[in-house]
Predict the 3D structure of the following.
Amino acid sequence: MKILVNDGIEPIGKKLLEEAGFEVDMNKIEQSDLMTRLNEYDAICVRSATKVRKDLIDVCPNLKAIGRGGVGLDNIDVEHAGSKGIAVINTPAASSRSVGELAMAHMLTLARFLHQSNREMPANGDTKFNDLKKAYAKGYELEGKTLGIIGLGRIGQETARTALGMGMTILAYDPYVDEATVSVGHVSLGFKHTIRTVPMQELLSGSDFISLHIPSVDKPVLGREEFSSMKDGVFVVNCSRGGTIDEDALIEALNSGKVAGAGLDVFENEPTPRKDLLSHPKVSLTPHIGASTEEAQNKIGEELAQRMIAALRGN
Ligand code: NAD
């Protein structure tokens, strides 16, 4: 069987597919030429660039599987593929660790003012060293603090594992999950811990840090009402999706001091987030890089290859 890998795959993914006996073509075919050429292949692997829409699917009766390296399936007509018996595969678990670690990085940054210090030191570190030393002297340790995790799925659990390893207490809210057992620490030295979810109100009022790990939502999960229920001086982190936090309400809460700092990887208006949020001194910022690590990319290649092999072999 021949697989077209049109937007690239990590070497480990190519190796696994070839070892399983598939012919892998890594030569990109332009979108406009796919209509006439994709039918030469049994399957296609894409990232976000190549679109596999209804019209393309309809002219490829040989197609047996469509693989998407990553999570989102916006570039594939999933239902239509399903109606033709074509398997659609993605790699939802591959980036969980990377996103969880980025959430922790934002928490550590906020707790020790790294976001502010990194902005100030290049400009004033040589002339106002002692002033800056004083300004950033009242940091916090994460150990002993309570982390509220909204959304106890794959990434929420990874974040919980890391936070537990740092000595934090977890409060989790997820309307669809009652409990989750996570392995904490090194595989050979670690321990298992079961997290039972609590009502949202308990999380909001009891957490020193709150981290969001939920899918896209129609209405923000954190708005004015939720901010008002939080502890004074809480830190809020969002590495999930833009739109899960009401950004107007967040800025108000930052300005009033209710929220001491926010760590944001995702924004309502990507790729042009609002300037007042980007320039807010209490915000630690990253440009939607949660899944962007070498390890996650390797895991995407590996998971995609394994799932493609299983689908094409019919198991
Ligand atoms: P998942 O499906 O494993 O977990 C999501 C959890 O959220 C589920 O347990 C679900 O029950 C829960 N949930 C749904 N609605 C909820 C609500 N209103 N309140 C509380 N919980 C709710 O997904 P995941 O793999 O953990 O991904 C979580 C989020 O992270 C997704 O939005 C995903 O798009 C995002 N993500 C971001 C990056 C990045 O680069 N920053 C990378 C990958 C994924």
Remarks:
- The chain has 13 helices and 13 strands.
